[in-house]
Design a protein that fits this description.
binds calcium ion; five-stranded mixed β-sheet; about 475 residues; 35 strands
Length: about 475
């Protein structure tokens, strides 16, 4: 290498070091209830709007998370609410069920919202919750906005002015009583027994179902599932069972391709992952037994979702692993005295020509997690708040994960993964949960990240 060559290399290295890592823009929102609802809805001119329902306090971020929200206090006795355009002016209204009254809050410009009672109806929603919760109330029939309100006898569609638009009685299907709000009871189950950490798990004591007769539509098509991840125990046991019992995810990111990737954890250690790819996606095809391949590390599949790191339309895989301490007494003592321990995240792209995921990782990153995170017997520990998301809206997935109790980082895949995150943030309190608001940025279509602590909500976007 010539002297100029060396100087150029040094210069590039220096620029590279400077471009490593940027801080997220963080909007901090204090919550009265740590389990406040956060969701996206269509705002002005159908651009996405963040809505936070915190007890009876409703905040609408009509100009993005960095601008002050419009705040409404819902009336006492409110049980269900929806945010949607009910009068075709391109501006959403808030519809609230308060006992037998249906209320509406309407906005115009920056003046405080006007509040009116639209009409009265003995809807089963009036006693459906001890606190208001978000529910789809506003729907469209033949391009007209109507309020869909279940009563004991029928699903009724009302115009916002209080005219009955249509009435669909509950089918008499032998469940006697049709639709009643008290036909089952459910309670949240924590810690999770079947789902992944952070998912809401409900225990139902009994269920009854009723469908409104003849809504004028064909029965909805069976939902096309993109994965079947099962419980952690099922994934553990799968390797010893026939292929149809294995959990799986879709190989393609577009909806209608049948190819499936079946996976299991390799006994007896269950720290490595086995994959078998079935192009027909048909478990009966297991007779022809797709080849079984082994990958070092435990597959991470947050919410049953896989990433497409290079935006080629094929699901890639991401695994976590951790070095074991040596077997000598000194090595074990040294490990026990550490406060944190390394976690390695590796990515294997799907190799289209070879019809399998690359056996060698095409990228890896490492961070140190508190030792306590390894002791939790949950699937995915010690990778906390792990999500695949698209922070820049370019269609390629990024990896987001907590790198400490008060930290969160996001890595872009660009011919590999850098050791330092592309974006990160540190918070004053411990992060306890994460939700991704898909395509929430109206300009770029990028996802926004919401992180929760016991008293705050943080909304993260890239600068
Ligand atoms: Ca891919
Ligand atoms: Ca991206």
């Amino acid at each position: 290498m010539t002297l100029t060559g060396i100087r150029e290399a040094a210069l590039i290295l220096c620029v590279g070091a400077l471009s490593l890592g940027a801080s997220f823009n963080v909007a901090e929102i204090h919550l009265d209830h740590p389990d406040a609802h956060v969701f996206l809805t269509q705002g002005i001119s159908e651009s996405p709007m963040i809505v936070i329902l915190d007890g009876y306090t409703l905040r609408l971020y009509r100009n993005g998370p960095d601008s002050p929200p419009t705040t409404i206090t819902l009336p006492p006795g409110a049980t269900a609410m929806d945010v949607s355009d009910t009068n075709d002016d391109g501006i959403p209204e808030v519809v609230v069920v308060v006992g037998t009254e249906i209320h509406r809050f309407e906005f115009s410009g920056d003046s405080p919202p006007s509040h009116a009672v639209l009409f009265s109806l003995n809807s089963v929603l009036r006693a459906s919750s001890p606190r208001p919760y978000p529910r789809v109330i506003v729907t469209r029939v033949e391009d007209t906005a109507v309020l869909a309100l279940p009563t004991a006898e029928a699903l009724e569609l009302w115009s916002p002015l209080g005219d009955l638009f249509a009435r669909h009685p509950w089918a008499d299907d032998g469940l006697d009583g049709g639709f009643t709000a008290a036909s089952f009871s459910a309670r949240a189950y924590r810690p999770n027994q079947a789902g992944q950490p952070g998912t809401l798990e409900l225990r139902l004591t009994s269920t009854a179902n009723a469908t409104p007769q003849a809504l004028g539509h064909e029965a909805p098509e069976a939902r096309l599932f993109r994965s079947r991840t099962g419980t952690p125990l099922q994934a553990r046991d799968a390797a010893l069972r026939p292929l149809p019992a294995w959990p799986w995810f879709s190989l393609h990111t577009e909806a209608d391709n049948p190819a499936r990737v079946f996976f299991a954890f390799d006994p007896p250690g269950f720290t490595d992952t086995l994959l078998r790819i079935s192009m027909a996606g048909n478990a009966a095809e297991s007779e022809s037994s797709p080849l079984r391949r082994r990958y070092a590390g435990t597959l991470v599949l947050p919410d049953g979702k896989t990433p497409d790191l290079n935006a080629d339309g094929f699901s890639d895989i991401v695994l976590w692993s951790t070095p074991r301490p040596g077997k000598s007494v000194q090595a074990l003592l040294r490990a026990a005295s550490e406060r944190d321990w390394p976690v390695r995240i590796t990515a294997h792209l799907f190799a289209v020509g070879k019809n399998r995921h690359d056996s060698r990782p095409s990228g890896s990153l490492t961070f140190r997690a508190p030792l306590a995170w390894f002791l939790k017997r949950e699937w995915g520990a010690p990778v906390r708040n792990f999500r695949f998301l698209d922070v820049d809206g370019d269609g390629a997935s990024e990896i987001g994960v907590s790198t400490g109790p008060t930290k969160f980082g996001v890595w872009r895949y660009a011919e590999g993964l850098k050791s330092a995150p592309d974006y990160d943030a540190t918070f004053p309190d411990e992060i306890t949960g994460i939700e991704i608001l898909k395509k929430a940025n109206p300009e770029t279509g990028a996802d926004l990240i919401t992180l929760r602590s016991s008293g705050n909500l943080y909304i993260l976007s890239i600068p």
